[in-house]
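INFO batch 0412 | record 1 of 1 | parsing
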Amino acid sequence: MNRFLLICTVCAFVVSGCSINASDSCKTKSPDAARVYAKYAETLLSQGKYEEAQKMATRSEKVHVPWNVELTTIKARVKLAEMRPDILRNGDWSLLKTDLLILHDKVPSMARDINVIKGHLAMAVSDFDKAKGFYKGVLAKDPTNPGALFGLGWLYRLQGKTDESIDEFKAGLQKDPNNYGALVALGDLNMKQKHNTDAAKYYGMAVKVHPDSIEAAKGLVQALYRQKKIAWAMNWLNKLIKRAPKDPDVFLWRGQILSEQKKWSEAIQMLSRAVMLGSGLNASVLLARAYIAVKQYANAESVIKTALKQARGNLELHYLLAVTLDQMGRKQDALKLYTGMLNAFKSMDPKIAARLAGVRKLCESSVKRLTQELGSQKGGKQAHKTKAKNSKK
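INFO prediction complete | emitting tokens
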């Protein structure tokens, strides 16, 4: 019967010129319209779609503000914070304090959830011991409470306790298997431990929960790339380019794969876009290497010199510039750069120098070769002058 009344109310609302998907500019501002939005918000809330529920409840408030709608909004915000304490840490959590007071009086049955939120609030100000106390208190009475388990997962993650964090997130997923935040967190934690297969699994599950998620899709690309599943990684990157056309990482990663496949023209296009979007030093290095590969040395020099303005001491950029100048025939300039790099190795931290041993050998061989070439050129010029002088006599 209630379902029938709801359908009738929705139909009446559509006929009046509005719909559930109508914009906030809808002219109808009646209690009936508010109730439709509020009822839909309650449905979304019961389905665990907390963000959507809060948006719908907020829309209902703009039409009409009965107490039950305000409460729906509060419940949605609190449940969202319960499931995603990472959002809580990055956002404004002051509203939640008010919400907790209201809920404590109006919805006593949510007392358990309130203690979970109190744990999140303590974690938001880095009071980890207090937060842990709230979570453990909830779990003592309700061992499978997902909010408390996820809260411990985030807490242990912040403390660098990766194994413990993974265990808590997995435990929470037993009760709430579609928790997006926990799935992404497990993907991140497994990536940190280089458990790439597990990371791909959890990112994939997160994408199924939120198909439009950029965060989870990017994580999945990295996990697939590490597993050398390049075709799958490229497939996801092609999707991400359409979804996130201003995300520099997407263009950088695609350019990197194309460079490895020696598809230089496409790689240059992707990496140029990444540099333009502010991807950082790695994109500039890869772009310079791509230009060198296709013998576009002037472009390579321009990219390197631009990057050096932001990273003057970067050894790899100096090496690429030396290679570029060498190929352009500017041997003296190249020799000067190679020699300067070898001098830098002398005062370098031994551990860093050991990692760059290959670059050092390349510099040494290049200095030796260029010294001989320039020496022979100098000797040839001198012989030519002597011959010319003798012919005059």
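INFO post-check: Residues 284 and 307 are 7 Å apart (CA to CA).
INFO record closed
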